[in-house]
Amino acid sequence: MIREQCRQNVRHPEAALQVVILVLSLLFIAPKSVGSTQQAGGVPASGPSVKMIRSVAGTKGESRGDSFVMTDPRTTFFLPDDHQVIVYFEWEAPRGKHHCEGTLRGPNGQLAVMSSFDYPATQLRFGGFWTIPLLENTTAGLWTFESRVDGESAGTFSFEIVAGKRPEDVVKNEPPPPTAAEIYARAVTASALIEKLDDKGRPLGTASGFFLENGVLVTAFRAIDGAQRLRIRRADGSQLQSDTVIAWNRRQDWALLNVDQGKNTKLKKADTKSVSVGDHCYWLVTKPDGARVISDGQIVGKEAHEGWGDRLSISGGFGSTAIGGPVLDEHGDVLGVLGGDLPEPGIYSGGASFAVTGSVVPIGLVGANTPPTPTRFETLWATNQFTAPVTAESDVSFGMITQGKPPKGKVPFPKEMKVDFSPRDEFATVIVAFQGIGALRDTVQLQIYDVDNHPINRGDPIKINLRSGETQERSWTFPLTIHPGIYRADILVGQEVAWRQYFRIIE
Prior knowledge:
about 500 residues, Thrombin, subunit H, Coagulation Factor XIII, Chain A, domain 1, 7-stranded antiparallel sheet, 3 domains, Immunoglobulin-like, 7-stranded mixed sheet, mainly beta
């Protein structure tokens, strides 16, 4: 009996495992039957459209999540010890219905046509495998399996059958990929929690990091942004503090910290040049109490952003505590760092400057062309690398940016929230409603910055005096005579940021 199975490497209900079992004679059939291929519906037949990503053979394999993993990969098989050969192919082809079939050529030129199947691919990458039984009278020698998708040759794999007992020291082609449990265990022991502290030692937020080599902790830049120092908790529960970074890139969103590794393990970099959309990957989601759970999915996008560096996109999201953690390939090697979202116009609750989506910084960017230079956080503050955190949000009940400026007198001012402006709009106005949770006596002020934290404009400070339960509205108007780009508006109560919104100037 010869059987095959097709699997698409994504989590979709419609991509459930499909198995077609056909009973074929073990006698080889005439080569003329090879030409009888079936064209898949909905897939253009003109020009090559199928690319083989990889192929592997072995005697054992298993399904892990949405992938098929060869647990005994090799190219040499022995009679009578081995009883079957599993040949697996992974392809990249247009979405739609595909017809997959295989042919097997023996050492004497004999040819067998394997059973075939149709598969409705909803993603660009999918795979299939065939199981070939080995009998005592199977001919020894070099065999070649050819896969075909939609009538096109879609890759070949050669393996050898040897008559004789399998040696004890037979060499495998490649080690089988680790299980999800093994990847999880290694990633957890290589990870650390990073807590940002202000000048009084109060926590500002928690993120993640991981050890990539001895004494170097990798994280996202936003995991350290706005801190006076960091409290780092390693996997063994030990803690230490740091206020020094040895390399960083604000726009690419990565930072390296020189931290004693302790008992933590370290992870290995993957070759991100070979990363393709559809590749299986893993990442850790960190719960509020610091516990971690493993998530898996696929690489679903690759983008290049001028001035900000390349980004990968994964099929799942993650919370802010996971930012700075690793994204791992099927071998447990690091593909990238969770984070990398670009600033977008809009309001961000809790003082966050960026939304948390499925963005990833490729590991190839981290540390590239940046020689290690130990730098204290106070220097990052002095050079506008750090962004002041929003710490007084309880003083504001509402805020918005609108077009125009309030008319003089008591004429009503129409208020419509806006985040995209052009120089033709001439003026914009920030309107903020302050609230007295307790008595509030201070000054409030507007400050405008570009995306590199350089101050662009500053409104006059305004005194405010609120009793508990009172609210008062204040507004600041500023001209839009600035270059196109993304900017942020901060409202300060005293020296603390109470409200923040990003906005955009377009051509």
